Amino acid sequence: MSAIKKDYKRITTKSLIEMKSNGEKISMLTAYDFTMAKIVDTAGIDVILVGDSASNVMAGHETTLPITLDQMIYHASSVVRAVERALVVVDLPFGSYQSDSKEALRSSIRIMKESGGHAVKLEGGKEIKESIKKILNAGIPVMGHLGLTPQSIYKFGTYTVRAKEEEEAEKLMEDAKLLEKLGCFALVLEKIPAHLAKLVAESISIPVIGIGAGGGVDGQVLVIHDMLGMNNEFSPRFLRRYMNLYEGMTSAISQYVDDVKSEDFPNEKEQY
Predict the structure, then answer these.
(1) Are 188 and 210 a contacting pair, CB within 8 Å?
(2) Whole-model pTM?
């Protein structure tokens, strides 16, 4: 039986839950600036994540930890100005919600008021329960994130697959059910075994969006720089490159340099 595909003029948190009910997969990509967000939105993406991965792909940091709340608001506001259809979800950066629930609420309110984003995303389960409750009580939609949580990289010590052992898998399932019970509208599962991700998706009513979590979930998310091949140094198993922009852009820029040096550019038709 094929999925029922509804034409949404504007994606909301309710739209995503309808998509899961109808068996329609959810598409999600990151974006961090106006121009890229405009292209991604026009192409028909359902959800744009203004990810703290901006710390890596935009600022060149090794981890997601250094990016600040002010920087996330800057990126998110740039994206929101470009978007007409997609739901815009904004990552709460490291240090903006873990310390206490009041700080989490203040951070979320700043994102919603100053960027115009539609929802926030937090990493973690039971340990951030109070923060999630306080944000939701303020009327701010929350997307959860379990499995590999990059903000905890120094705790894990590695980016390898999470929840392969029974104890961690059981905790992940418990956390997923807790996030649903608290009122999160969706959940990202990162880099966990495909069979576990499928089981989670079948066990809860909210959409489960995977990255390195197999095809048995309700949707997929990738970092835009990775799937377009702008980044040629990152090649995990779960990544499919739809273009090789690194090569294409390098070639075009090299040609431009040659044309300027040889005085081929600009020609007579390219000047006033």
Answers:
(1) yes
(2) 0.94
